[in-house]
Amino acid sequence: MKPVAAVSVIALLVALLLPVFWRAPAAAEPAPTPLAGADAETILTVKTGDAVTETTMAEYLPGVLAGEMPALFEQEALKAQAVAARTYILYRAAHRPEAHPDADICDDPACCKAWASESDLREKWGEQFDTYYAKMTAAVRDTDGAYLSYGGAPIQAVFHSSSPGRTQASGEIWNDCPYLLSVSSPETAADVPDFVSQVEVSPEEFRTQLLTACPAMEFPDDPAGWVEGTTENTSGRADHTTVCGTDISGTQMRSLFSLRSAAYTLEYTARGTFLFTVTGYGHGVGMSQYGANVFAKNGWTYDAILAHYYPGTELKSP
């Protein structure tokens, strides 16, 4: 075969075989965005700082979810959180607080719900932003419009970070609520960072803090006898601690000494200090976020998780 003919044959074979062995690189999959649906049609007024703006549930809820629950959590836990947060926003919109009568919701977690902007999340998550934000939008999209109802209305779907074996009934610290009962929660120190924490204070600081709440208290010279004991409620949290003959509620002790929860023990140590040993984080009422994540790891779906933490409620979907 002549050289020119050989080259022609080789070129023809390459042209025929190239499509077999070569594939165009797959295009990067864009992060999913909430689809048109009930959330897209739900209009909210949101207070951020001094400004009140209008948005939709579909636009706002992913930022709430990202502000309230770690992105590494199981998808069913994120979906349970999305429903709880959506429900709480709907409840808040129907019961606007005095802090913002002109807005349905605000981004202050002490009042309503935490919220993170896309720019904040890009800075926080860095190269993982697309992956993590896709998880948030998917949890919102896959539960579009779903909320928890009791008596025909959205419930007060409060939640907290972690519990020491049981959640707390709302009546222990607020008013009784038929769906905010004490239920089991599976998280342990193996599942939760800083599940057990400690706070140690001097007798001087201990006395000073208590006097801010109870100015009439009298303290003997020997601090070893100040604390007379702590009485627990049915969830294992402190109902009250008796100090120098005065009962101080567990929630008040938590506030006075910046404890992570009211599930604490208190002792006077050989070092001459008062030591709080605390389990869990948060007020303890409603869904435990870390408990939800453990349930999800064990195969529970988001609706089963919600039914466990909010007994007697109905999951409504558009």
Provide a descriptive summary of the structure in words.
The chain is of the alpha+beta class and 318 residues long. Helices cover 35% and strands 19% of the residues. It has helices spanning 3-21, 38-41, 57-68, 75-94, 118-125, 129-142, 203-213, 250-256, 289-297, 302-309; strands at 43-48, 51-56, 105-106, 147-150, 153-154, 159-160, 196-201, 227-232, 238-243, 246-249, 264-268, 274-279, 287-288, 314-316. Helix 3 (57-68) crosses helix 4 (75-94), helix 4 crosses helix 6 and helix 4 packs antiparallel against helix 9 (289-297). The model is unreliable at 1-34 (pLDDT under 50).
Brief rundown of the structure:
It contains ten helices and 14 strands. With 318 residues, it is α+β, with helices and mostly antiparallel strands.
How much helix is in the residues? 25-40%
Classify the secondary structure makeup into a structural class.
alpha+beta
Elements, N to C (H/E)? HHEEHHEHHEEEEHEEEHEEEHHE
Assembly annotation: single chain
Q: What is the strand content?
A: 15-25%
What distinguishing features does this structure have?
318 residues, alpha+beta, 14 strands, 19% strand, disordered N terminus
Layout: helices, strands, pairs:
Layout: H1 3-21, H2 38-41, E1 43-48, E2 51-56, H3 57-68, H4 75-94, E3 105-106, H5 118-125, H6 129-142, E4 147-150, E5 153-154, E6 159-160, E7 196-201, H7 203-213, E8 227-232, E9 238-243, E10 246-249, H8 250-256, E11 264-268, E12 274-279, E13 287-288, H9 289-297, H10 302-309, E14 314-316
Helix pairs in contact: 3-4, 3-6, 4-6, 4-9, 4-10
